[in-house]
Amino acid sequence: MSKVIRVLIAKPGLDGHDRGAKVIARALRDAGMEVIYTGLRQTPEQIVAAAIQEDVDVVGMSLLSGAHNYLFPRVVELLKEQGVEDILVIGGGVIPDDDIPGLKEAGIAEIFTPGTTTTAMIDFINNNVK
Q: Model-level pTM greater than 0.70?
């Protein structure tokens, strides 16, 4: 019997649109993962605290407000400061293609943009959780 993958879905910053995050959370749950949803308007510090407290394997952040270049890397930075380097960090939302390489260099494992299938996200998680 394999371990159930635990995923934290977070909405960092002032972004108040969570329909997509809820769709992803449900798809991951339906795929057999345990999903914790933090709710709207979370700070990077709150996201990291929840990830550590819930002992998750994955942090998935959804952002539509344009603050991804600060908020996503900040979560990775805070995880490292806490000595946590075994959590897969992924992001999604309305993110310009030009920003994706910098986010990956900052430690975001993958960025999922509008139109990505839930199957692609599930497969990526299953193939990349340590």
A: yes
